[in-house]
């Protein structure tokens, strides 16, 4: 993705909006300059992305899109979910560890571990941010207890959360 991003439109913590060259993002695997910035609950957020795409054969591109879409639909639960929640550990996919911990179908309020893929959380009944956060913490505790692995969220807690509730390692973030 970083190869095709030309510039990004950012909402800065002070509320201003501006376009920046993609080079300021310092993209790397699962990270960027934005993720590495201390934010104390507030950091710049990407609003828009300007990309430079390469031309290709429309039929070939459609076939690739259809194949990828079909593969994702087989793996991804249907319904209200935000995608995968935890990063893969060095040894095992997070979904495998969550499933082995017996958490498929486990619920907190309206948030549920998907019965189809354990690394997806579903909003089954008006889940609140607090429900989702509590479920994430429960999953982390159970997997740590069972396998000695602390699952790291792919998602970030945005807003007025205490530092320890944003998935931060220190008060500097």
Question: TL;DR of this structure?
Answer:
With 173 residues, the protein is an alpha+beta fold. The chain has 4 helices and 7 strands.
Structure description:
With 173 residues, the chain is of the alpha+beta class. The protein folds into two domains: 5-51, no CATH class; 73-166, UDP-N-acetylenolpyruvoylglucosamine reductase, C-terminal domain (Uridine Diphospho-n-acetylenolpyruvylglucosamine Reductase, domain 1, Alpha-Beta Complex). It has four helices and seven strands, in the order ββαβαβαβββα. It has helices at residues 33-36, 58-75, 94-100, 129-147; strands spanning 5-11, 17-21, 45-51, 81-84, 107-108, 111-113, 120-123. A hairpin with a 6-residue loop joins β6 and β7 (120-123).
What is the secondary structure topology, with strand pairs?
Blueprint (H helix, E strand, L loop, with lengths): L4 E7 L5 E5 L11 H4 L8 E7 L6 H18 L5 E4 L9 H7 L6 E2 L2 E3 L6 E4 L5 H19 L26
Antiparallel strand pairs: 1-2, 1-3, 4-7, 5-6, 6-7
List keywords for this structure.
173 residues; alpha+beta; 2 domains; single chain; 4 helices; Uridine Diphospho-n-acetylenolpyruvylglucosamine Reductase, domain 1; three-stranded antiparallel beta sheet; 28% helix; globular; four-stranded antiparallel beta sheet; disordered C terminus
Instruction: Tell me the number of strands.
Output: 7
Q: Which quaternary structure do these chains form?
A: single chain
The CATH architecture term of the largest domain is Alpha-Beta Complex
Major sheet: 4 strands, antiparallel
Q: What is the highest CATH level, the class of the largest domain?
A: Alpha Beta
Order of neighbouring strands in the sheet with most strands: 4-7-6-5
Give the N-terminus to C-terminus distance in angstroms: 26 Å
State the helical fraction.
25-40%
CATH topology title of the largest domain:
Uridine Diphospho-n-acetylenolpyruvylglucosamine Reductase, domain 1
């Amino acid at each position: 993705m970083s190869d095709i991003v030309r510039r990004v439109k950012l909402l800065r913590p002070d509320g201003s909006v501006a376009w920046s060259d993609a080079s300021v993002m310092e993209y790397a695997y699962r990270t960027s300059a934005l993720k590495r910035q201390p934010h104390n609950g507030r950091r710049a957020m990407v609003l828009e992305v300007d990309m430079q795409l390469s031309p290709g054969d429309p039929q070939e591109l459609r076939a690739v899109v259809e194949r990828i879409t079909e593969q994702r639909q087989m793996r991804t639960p249907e319904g209200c979910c935000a995608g995968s929640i935890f990063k893969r550990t060095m040894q095992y996919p997070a979904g495998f560890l969550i499933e082995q911990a017996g958490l498929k179908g486990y619920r907190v309020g309206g948030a549920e571990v998907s019965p189809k893929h354990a690394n997806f959380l579903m909003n089954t009944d008006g889940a609140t941010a607090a429900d989702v956060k509590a479920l994430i913490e429960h999953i982390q505790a159970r997997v740590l207890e069972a396998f000695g692995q602390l699952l790291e969220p792919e998602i970030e807690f945005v807003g007025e959360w205490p530092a320890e509730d944003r998935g931060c390692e220190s008060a500097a973030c």
